[in-house]
What we know:
Helices cover about 65% and strands about 0% of the residues. By secondary structure, it is mainly alpha-helical.
Amino acid sequence: MDASIREMGVGDLAVPRKMRSIGEAFYRRQAAYRSALAATDDAVLAQALEQHVFTGAARAEAASRLASYMREAVRRLARQDHERFGRAELSFPEPVTWERQPQ
């Protein structure tokens, strides 16, 4: 990321500041998603996604669909053998064909 920021024209003195900003944004989102996934209601996760990912008029529906998909992906990952993680053989729901399951 450091090299990419430099390629975009950020000067040497500003790179650490930009990297700190990127790191803070990443960890802020990670904390929001982690606590939202701990909640049992998809509305909490959808709200976090709506705030951090989506913009525009259709964002509430899109965030709700992504929240439901994320919960299913987390469930599937939890059931997978840990050795598969080391081999990067993870199975996720197919986003195009996956439909939201009733809660």
